[in-house]
Structures are given as C-alpha cells and as structure tokens.
Amino acid sequence: MGLLSWWSLRRRALATDDLQQEKEIVERIVRLGPQLRLARDYEARLAPAVHQATGYLRRLVAQVPAAREASVAAWATDPYIHAFFATPDDVAPVFSHSEALRNCLRDHPAVDEVFAVLGMAVDERRTLGVAQDGAITRTDVAQTTVNFSDHQVRVCAVSEVALREEIVLRVLDQLTLQGLGEIEADTLRRDSLEQERALLRTRLKILERQGIGVRSLLGSEASCSFAEVARLQAQLDENDRALANLGLKTEALERELQMVCKVLALPDAHVYVQKKKFLLDRLNVVVEDGDTRPAQEMELQIARMPASPNAIRVFSMVRFKRQDLLPERDILAEARRLLI
To answer: Residue 268: exposed, middle, or buried by beta-carbon count in 10 A (0-12, 13-18, 19+)?
Structure first.
C-alpha cells in the first residue's frame, strides 16, 4: 500500500470516528431533554451544532496547561499548588472529600493516581501589611493579596487525555441545559402573559358593562370609563404582541430544538477562558514593579460558564495519588471537628 493510499484510509477512519462521536453526543443531549426526540429530524439538525461546539471546546481545552501534581511535596516546590492551598496539610483533605475522586479510584482499582479539575473561588483584597523600607519596618503598607477558597473537585478521569475529553462533555451538558433553560424561561413568560391577558379581559368586560343602563343615560362616569377602557385595550394589544413573539404553543418543540442548536452553534458566546497574570510572593501578596522581594509570575485560568456568568472561578488540572487519599475515618473526624 502506498503512502497516499494509507493516508486516505487513515483520514476516512478518523472521519468515521468523529461521526460516531458526534452521534453519541447527540444521544447524550437528548437524554438531557427527551422531548427533543419528538422534533422533526432532530439528529440531522443537532449534528452541525454539535460539530461546532465540540470543535471549539476541544481547542479551548487543548490550551489548558498540563496537570500539576497535588501533594504535600508539590506544595513546597510548585508555586501554583503553594498559592492554591494555605498550608501543605490542606491539600489532601480537599481531594479526599471529593466523592467523584473516591468513586473514580474505587471504579479503577489498578490506577495509582487520578486526574481531576480543581476549581476555586478567587478574591483580590486590598489590605494593610508589613514591608521593609530600608532599615525601617512599616506596618501600614497598602498591598493586594490573592486568596483562593471553596476548593471543589467534581470532574475526574484516569488519564489526562480522558480528563480533557470529559471536560468537553461536561461543558456540552451545560450548554444544552442553557438552551433548555431559555425555553423554560419562555414558557414561564407565556404563562405569565396568558394570566395577565385573562385579568385584563375580565376587567375590560366589567368596565364595558358599567357603560350599559342608568350610568350611560346619566353620563356620571362615562369619561372615566372610556379612558380606562382605552388604557386596558392598549395593554391587551401589547400583551398580544408579546405572546405572538413567543410563537404558537404547537411550535414549542421546534423552538426548543432551535434554541438548543443556537446555543451549541455559538459556544464562544457562553463559555470562554480568561487568563490573568499575577506576580506573587510566598504569602500570595502581589509584588509591584520595582519591588525586589522574591516572587513568582503566575497565569491563572478563569472559566466563564453559563450557569454562573458573574462568578469568578479559577481552575487547574491536577494529579492526585491514591496513596495520599485520607482514610474515610479521618475525613469524618475532621468534619466533626469543624462542626464543634
């Protein structure tokens, strides 16, 4: 077989694998929203959007730095692990508390380490600290500290390649939920508009009836009633326009599928990663230009997700060894200590 023939067969095999993966992802999506199966040609219509989303997310995840070892030893040598955890004794409990990590180790008894996503909240605080000014020690120096908290480990895998793919799938799940959530918001909006319309029509009928009989002869409240009727009619017209913009109820399935496809086709509008650099000393204090203190430049990966667009969550891929996992009895003892 010639080189060109081999390459052609190789490309066809890869294309077949990609198509199979996309079909599996489409199936994963409709498991989150089973009603989507009832929409016309749902598989064919979801496929291009899935292709767009997976391509973007894989490129995004490929840019994430390699997994770091998370351990007591790494706390002393890796500036990132040192910054993420206040003390070396804080490392193991975070991972040992993770049900996802424990399940991964339990399901794969032969592996010695697990790859995971460590997510954290990050907070920059302006405080007064201590600094050396020549021979004088000052205690009122304004400084910025970077603090990491709310450590979470919820996505795990047995290899870095598998972890990157699992991240892609989890974000696809979130994008799907985003699309379904927007449909739910439309449904709630429709229900609210229909209730409002019913109330407006009832009020309009009451006012119209008041214009019949003695009051219409005497004209005592005619001008007031006519003005109120006109106002209610304007509100009804506006209500009807808002309902029309939401489409017919019979088209709900079509709109659901369209909304999910729209979100998946524009993943960069909902999910992206920002990078922010800090020059930090060993106490997580930001070192300003011109300061001669020992410091390490760090580039943090900040994820923006549709579930919490305003939350700032730093994440890092890490490796955690089975031998560092704390026994469950130690975890329970620590939980009791924190409750006291």
So the answer is: exposed
Tally of CB atoms within 10 A around 174: 16
CB neighbours of 10 closer than 8 A, spacing ≥ 6? none
| pLDDT tens digits, 38-66 | 888 999 999 999 999 999 999 999 999 99
Q: Which residue has the tokens 């230009």?
A: 289
Burial class (CB in 10 A: 0-12, 13-18, 19+), 70: buried
Number of Cβ atoms within 10 Å of the Cβ of 125: 10
Supply φ then ψ for residue 240, to 5 degrees.
-65, -40
DSSP of 48-74:
HHHHHHHHHHHHHHHTSPPPEE-SHHH
Q: How far from 120 is each of 83, 127, 150, 163, 283, CA to CA, in Å?
A: 12, 21, 5, 18, 18
Q: Which of 81, 89, 65, 140 lies closest to 282 in space, CA to CA? A: 81
Using only the alpha carbons of the chain, give its radius of gyration: 30
CA distance 55 to 45: 17
| pLDDT digit string, tens, across residues 167-213 | 999 999 999 988 888 776 556 565 555 666 666 566 656 555 655 44
